[in-house]
Amino acid sequence: IRQMGERMALNAPIQGTAADIIKKAMIEIDTALRGAGMGTRLVLQVHDELILEVPEEEEASAERMVVEIMEGVATLDVPLVVDVSWGRDLAAVKG
What is the pTM of this model? Predict the structure, then answer.
């Protein structure tokens, strides 16, 4: 039980920081998308990934904006690296 408690104590600040980072990124992305007058919208957040609905004509600009914001949202000793996947629906992206 002690080992489990120690792991939980060490892991909690890491998971909490990751949650704070993704929430900050979501706010910045939403603000940037709306400020640019884009139709792209955040739909869902699952752990460390964001799901967006993106009109076809906005794919390139939305990807650049989201990647730039997510990779720069926090100053860390290790870089944040963003991977982007596209699909007509979530099943196509996850498949």
Answer: 0.85
